[in-house]
Design brief:
two-stranded antiparallel ribbon, mainly alpha
Length: 533
């Protein structure tokens, strides 16, 4: 009997016995797993990592937890200035007698995600006793960031499928999100707050949409618990996600879904308990976090104020180098898709599936538009808007449902619909090229002696990590002297006159395109030529 005949007979026998093969039963799951793995490979393929100070606590806290069982980074002398006795990147050496943080190097930023990942670090850094300066720390940092970013695209695809988006459209939108936005060049490159934030936000969106489906909302108690857990993790990863948590809480309150509300709160308790316990044990107060000690905020007058919104809001959206629209222009279609969703709600789903994600995007944009440092320091593109990307990309799901005027012929409407998707594809391709440049070529060389190469190559050895240096470079310790501190220099060019809230065209043009000279040479605080000094 030929092999083909044997295979056909085996398949028929399995069908008759009602036992489909493993591949047949798990084909969809395996394809999704392969897609996530492919994204991880793409994200890691540039062999680079982000060297900004914000990423260092998340990079080394897991090592500290498995080796010393605490959150301070005192022992990592090779990332501390002053011959290994100074502060740390992304934190500081606290000195206040009688306080639990006295004499400890602690992070300004959340520690929830590093705590979740700490068990993975146990074997290499506890059992095998690898040194903390070993290059494996940086590889693990980048790998976990890539995994979180890839999973966010996976959950976004799942959310699009829940609202009956055609598979081809769902794949196109998910790929535009994964490769055509700063999810690639920012979130997936190092384990700071953004990739986990996007992952848990996308997961919570997927779960919430399941909760909104009538046949599931009353039948499964696990969905609201998992939703609360995902939202709690999102808030613990990045506190500004409390906007999304509050929107869901308010929606359940207004609809008086008391059981669902109770389960939602129950699911969020683990993350809330962790945050309160961490703040109490480390800072002596459950409501005080590391953010309160960040010197950047303390030296910037009106660092969070409404009067910053005109320049900040416009910059976040339209700054040519750092804005969302010039670098991911397919989001220009959002008004059209949101309008379509409001006018023609999906059968079985209310308008809230459009309203709540849209409100989150607007609230997040408003918050960071009011932030004095809306351009996010040295970042490539629109770092502060990365957290809204899963929601903003999801809101494109109505693109395939856009209707054209009835006086247009059927063939004309078909051509218009194809043209619309063609515009989306071209804009997504542009976004992908921008992110590929940021991932593979951009060096971010404009910070004088402090940041000689922000997007550093990931080719390191432990021998090059001498105390007081990082890969033959000075430790990343910012000076608080306004003459040297970059953010202080930037803030001088973004001073609004007292009492003026509105923006004039001249002021907006100045804030978006001004070029000044600071101690590091010619520098445009907003418009930074990609790859230029």
């Amino acid at each position: 009997m030929h092999s083909a005949e044997r295979s056909a007979k085996l398949m028929n026998s399995m069908k008759e016995n009602g036992r489909p093969s493993f591949l047949a039963r798990h084909r969809g799951g395996l394809l999704k797993l392969l897609a996530v793995a492919a994204l991880v490979i793409v994200y890691c393929s540039n062999g680079r990592f982000i060297a900004g100070s914000d990423v260092y606590p998340a990079r080394f806290i897991p090592v500290s937890l498995v080796t010393e069982g605490d959150y301070d980074l005192n022992e990592f002398t090779f990332i501390r200035g002053a011959e290994g006795t100074g502060g740390i990147p992304g934190g500081q050496l606290f000195a206040e007698a009688g306080k639990p943080y006295d004499g400890r190097c602690l992070s300004y930023y959340p520690t929830f995600i590093p705590t979740l990942l700490a068990p993975v670090y146990f074997i290499p850094f506890r059992l095998l006793a690898l040194p903390a300066e070993h290059f494996l720390v940086f590889y693990m940092d980048k790998l976990f960031a890539s995994i979180f970013a890839s999973l966010s695209a996976f959950f976004l695809f799942g959310a699009l499928c829940v609202v009956k988006t055609p598979r081809v459209a769902a794949i196109a939108i998910s790929l535009a999100y994964a490769l055509g936005t700063s999810t690639w060049a920012i979130s997936a490159q190092s384990l700071w707050q953004h990739a986990p934030s996007q992952c848990f936000l996308a997961a919570s969106l997927w779960l919430w949409l399941h909760l909104e489906r009538p046949r599931l909302s009353q039948s499964s108690a696990s969905i609201p618990i998992l939703l609360g857990l995902a939202v709690g993790c999102a808030v613990a990863a990045r506190p500004s996600n409390v906007i999304w948590a509050s929107l869901l809480l308010g929606d359940l309150l207004l609809r008086r879904r008391w059981k669902t509300l109770a389960l939602y709160i129950l699911g969020g308790l683990p993350a809330a308990i962790f945050l309160l316990a961490y703040n109490s044990s480390v800072f002596g107060d459950p409501l005080i976090s590391g953010y309160q000690f960040n010197p950047v905020q303390r030296i910037m007058p009106d660092w969070l104020a409404w009067k910053n919104l005109p320049a900040g809001g416009l910059g976040l959206l339209f700054s040519p180098s750092l804005g969302l629209i010039p670098n991911a222009p397919f989001y220009l279609l959002l008004p059209l898709t949101v309008w379509t969703g409001l006018r023609r709600p999906l059968p079985g789903l209310s308008r809230r599936v459009v309203v709540l994600p849209a409100l989150f995007c607007i609230g997040h944009w408003t918050l960071y538009g009011c932030y004095r440092e809306w351009w996010a320091g040295w970042s490539f593109c629109y770092r502060y808007l990365t957290d809204i990307l899963p929601m903003a990309s999801f809101l494109l799901f109505n693109l395939w449902r856009v209707r054209f005027p009835s006086f247009i012929s059927a063939s004309g409407r078909c051509l218009a619909r194809r043209s619309l998707w063609g515009v989306f594809a071209i804009c997504a391709l542009w976004g992908t090229l921008v992110q590929a440049y940021g991932s593979y070529a951009w060096g971010g060389v404009w910070f004088g002696r402090y940041w000689q190469n922000i997007n550093q190559q990931l080719f390191v050895t432990s021998e090059r990590s001498a105390p007081g240096t990082i890969f033959d470079k000075e430790s990343v310790i910012w000076s608080l002297d306004p003459a040297e501190h970059l953010i202080a220099c930037e803030s001088e060019y973004f001073r609004w006159a007292p009492g003026i809230w509105f923006a004039t065209p001249r002021k907006v043009h100045h804030d978006l395109f001004v070029t000044q000279t600071i101690p590091y040479g010619p520098y445009a605080p907003i418009i930074l030529p990609m790859g230029g000094n």
